Amino acid sequence: MLPDMPTLSTAAVSVGIPGPGQKITVQLMDGRGRVLGFAKYADKPYTRQLMANEARMLGVIPEGVGPRLVRLTPFLEGELLVQTALPGRTRTPRLGLDAAQMRFFERLVQPAKSYAANEHPFVQSLRFQAGGYRAGALRDAIEEIVGGLGDVRWPVAWSHGDMAPWNMYLWRNECLAFDWEHGREVGFAYLDAAATLIQVASIIQRLAPQQAKREVSEKLGTSLPPRYAGFAPALASLSAANMLVSWYPPRKPDANQRWLETFVSAPARGEA
To answer: Are residues 47 and 113 in the same domain?
Structure first.
């Protein structure tokens, strides 16, 4: 890493939880303690796959929304991903979306590519991923969700895939995001905005999924562009369904899985 960061002097190492999702993250600093970048090491099939995907995403996302890729290279028994540091700081998570966050989500939208929900390439991919999920229960839910997304055309967007306030920094009144390992180049517009609210409602506020569905839908609806605001409940359900097929497996079934499943099927006032 010295050729890329010649002032590298010290490092702080974080070893993840043992298991198929374990990886080692290293914060790289110069002699004054300034963060130069981050390195991630993975030697397990699943984490190597995630790291390769993050490297790909860092190469395609727009300038000014996340870190830049320095290199992905073989190292020891696995691979090493090195990326630049992001300026800024995290903020206290809250159940709401501010102007800086919405500007960030707008920068992810690819307006030249839009589809009816039923024909959207992200939806087609989600259907395929859900093919073996719990004997088809989620597949049926997805079809109902798609029906609730109306006849409007939905843009493609670069998708973070694990969006939450703790994966974002605020810098000069703009938002930046890191940890793009679950990202997609062909995502669904504003799905990450819904995911941000869902993460806060479930992990921070610990709301019951039925209450969370109502509050997430309300907060999302007041933040989306007017043409999409009425579809906030369906968009929230789609985001939760995406979390389910993205995380289970390899994550073992747990309380969060059951929470998300209930959230997907829960009614919300004012559904379009």
So the answer is: no
**63 and 156 together in one domain:** no
Place of tokens 């020891």: 76
Q: 108 is in which domain, residue-wise?
A: 99-265
In sequence order, which ranges of 121-169 are alpha helices (DSSP H)? 121-129, 137-147
Q: Would you say 51 and 23 are in contact if contact means Cβ atoms under 8 Å apart?
A: yes
- Give dist(CA 117, CA 137) in Å, integer: 20
Strand partners, 25: 14, 40
End residue of a domain, out of 57, 84, 111: 84
Q: Do both 34 and 76 map to the same domain?
A: yes
Residue 77's φ and ψ, nearest 5 degrees, are -95, 10
Distances in Å between the alpha carbon of 260 and those of 72, 87, 91, 163, 257?
33, 32, 25, 15, 5
For residue 49, give the H/E element and its range.
Answer: helix 45-60
- In this prediction the pTM is 0.92
Q: Please report, as a single letter, which amino acid is at residue 109.
A: V
Average of per-residue pLDDT across 45-55: 95
Residue 266, Cα to own-chain centre: how many angstroms?
22
Does one domain contain both 68 and 117?
A: no
67-80 confidence digits (pLDDT tens): 999 999 999 999 99
What lies within 8 Å, CB to CB, of 272 at 6+ separation is: 148, 150, 230, 231, 232, 233, 234
Higher pLDDT, 220 or 4: 220
Q: What is the CATH number of the domain that holds 76?
A: 3.30.200.20
**Could you tell me the CA-to-CA distances from 44 to 50, 74, 232 in Å, in that order?**
10, 13, 38
Residues with Cβ within 8 Å of residue 131, at least 6 apart in sequence: 139
Task: Say yes or no: 140 and 30 in one domain.
Answer: no
